[in-house]
Amino acid sequence: LEGNNTWKNDKPYVIYGYVGVNVGNTLNIEKGVRVYFHQNSGLLVEKEGSLKVQGTLDEKVIFQGDRLEPYFENVAGQWGTIWLRAGSRDHILSHTVIKNNVIGVLMDSLGSDTEPTLKIDHTEIYNTSNFGLFARATHVEGSNLVIANNGQSSLACTLGGRYYFTHSTFANYWSGNIRDFPALLVNNYQIASGADGSEVIISNDLQAADFTNCIIEGNQNVEFLLQNSEAALFEYNFKNNLLRFLDPGGNFSGDPLYDFEDTSKYQENIFNGEADFKAVDENIYYIGELSDAIEKADLSASQEFPTDLLGVSRLPSPDIGAYQHMIFEE
């Protein structure tokens, strides 16, 4: 794209190949816009560039593949990714749906030392054949976010950085093949190849990985994994979350990263409770009357995000996750 651009809701956009936001430019996408990607297509934003997606509750922005036959409605891997490249900054994804691609959003590097590289809210990412949101050494603030049905992790916060997620649901019930990673992956390093072909560990400070009032669930025993290189800082905190972590073999026994009695890292979490999702096979992650998340959220954090993903008030009795509970019809 040349210069700054605004995509309006007057027609759909169909992308063949990768559309690029050039160095220092901004792409604004207005409410109600639909973007359809052909196979091996995507969107990338270069250094100093910005992507600002401004949907609304009633007019979401939708990114999906261009095969519109019913068979392809929920098929993963149909297109590439939204790639927010190193040095890009000030990204906003609000009231957005991203589905059926390889990686929902791939983002690299800090665009600013003080402001989030990405603010993401009221957004749903579904059916990715790899990762939902794959962040590398960056700064993300997320709320009212659902990421689900992903071939690897729903959320990967890797190579350090700063991450803050509130009232979000990361639920991975992927059944397409064997999944190597849990719903949530957090680490402060990556493994690269040296000049001689040997493995080289690159470490970077994880300054924060804070999860408050979130559901982290899935169809594996362990759905969050913390990987620490002692060569760099590793700061994390889990508060008032519903977490899936079953370790019958004792593989994590004695690991200080999973000392759930350590109140400096874990506060008021619920382990292995019942989420009571409405229909995971249809990517409907509303919670019902049987959920252990009901009225268990931290109120002070909920007051910063007083309505849920559907616009329903959380106050005065907030539930954990992206949605307030509801009564499911038979």
Describe the overall structure.
- By secondary structure, the chain is mainly β.
- 1% of the residues lie in helices and 44% in strands.
- The chain has a 23-stranded parallel β-sheet that branches. Strands 17-18 form a two-stranded antiparallel sheet.
Strand percent estimate: 35-45%
Instruction: Kindly report the average pLDDT value.
Output: 96
Helical proportion, percent range:
under 10%
- Radius of gyration over C-alpha positions, nearest whole angstrom: 19 Å
Outline type: globular
- Span of the ends, CA to CA: 49 Å
Poorly predicted segments:
none
Q: Using DSSP, what is the number of strands?
A: 27
Question: What about the largest sheet?
Answer: 23 strands, parallel
Total of helices: 1
Structural category: mainly beta
The sequence of SSEs as H and E is: EEEEEEEEEEEEEEEEEEEEEEEEEEEH
Q: Short description, anyone?
A:
The chain is mainly beta and 330 residues long. 1% of the residues lie in helices and 44% in strands.
Task: Supply the key terms.
single chain; 330 residues; mainly beta; 1 helix
Q: What is the element layout, followed by pairings?
A:
Layout: E1 5-7, E2 13-15, E3 18-21, E4 26-29, E5 34-37, E6 42-45, E7 50-54, E8 61-65, E9 79-84, E10 91-99, E11 101-108, E12 118-128, E13 133-150, E14 155-166, E15 169-172, E16 184-187, E17 189-193, E18 199-203, E19 206-212, E20 215-218, E21 224-227, E22 237-239, E23 242-243, E24 266-267, E25 270-271, E26 277-279, E27 284-287, H1 299-302
Parallel strand pairs: 1-4, 2-5, 3-6, 4-7, 5-8, 6-9, 7-10, 8-10, 9-11, 10-12, 11-13, 12-13, 13-14, 13-15, 14-16, 14-19, 15-20, 16-21, 19-22, 20-23, 22-24, 23-25
Antiparallel strand pairs: 17-18, 26-27
